[in-house]
Amino acid sequence: MKIIAFGASTSGTSINKLLATYAANQIEGADVEVLDISQYDVPLFSEDKEKEIGQAQGAKQFLDDIAQADALVISYAEHNGHYPAAYKNLFDWATRIEREVFAGKPAVYLATSPGPGGAATVLAAATNSAPYFGGNVKASVSVPSFYDNFDLEKGSIRNESIVAEIKTAVNQLK
């Protein structure tokens, strides 16, 4: 089983990328590929820009990479209650090529933040809008207070109840 995992963030130290990587690696025997969305170069979306260049190459590559997956693990960063601008821009370009970006692939949606809210607002937005974009969300988990619950040195979650919740979620991808 090939799992594509990514954090919907362009931060080089993304806690959401760490969380997605950790969760995807909880699936025994899975071939996990972790994407870095900052590698998908796309200009700021506008209809004028789309008329000028056609389909953005970075968005095509993003869709091609997702197409290689049997399942997805995505962890959404939250900026002021919403998707980060860079992720939203990549997503907007991708939807202009293929509205069903996630192609019905089974997915686990995650979110985390340094604070107690665990990016729950953006996770709810992503989960609720998923069906419109080919999302087949099997489970979603918000992880609050990332730095209190995640051991950066070991690359693992300290809180056993969160560990169990994530394992239950990703096991639904099998």
Structural class: alpha/beta
Number of helices: 7
* Strand arrangement across the biggest beta sheet: 2-1-3-4-5
Mean model confidence by pLDDT: 97
Q: In what range is the share of β-strand residues?
A: 15-25%
Major sheet size, sense and barrel closure: 5 strands, parallel
How would you portray this structure in words?
The protein is of the alpha/beta class. 39% of the residues lie in helices and 21% in strands. It contains 7 helices and 7 strands. It has helices spanning 15-24, 47-53, 57-67, 85-97, 120-129, 146-149, 160-171; strands at residues 2-8, 31-35, 71-76, 106-112, 136-143, 150-151, 156-157. The strands form 2 sheets. Strands 2-1-3-4-5 form a 5-stranded parallel sheet. It has a two-stranded antiparallel sheet with strand order 6-7. Helix 3 (57-67) crosses helix 4. It is globular, with a radius of gyration of 15 Å. The termini are close together. The mean pLDDT is 97.
Give the key terms.
single chain, 174 residues, alpha/beta, five-stranded parallel beta sheet, two-stranded antiparallel ribbon, 7 helices, globular
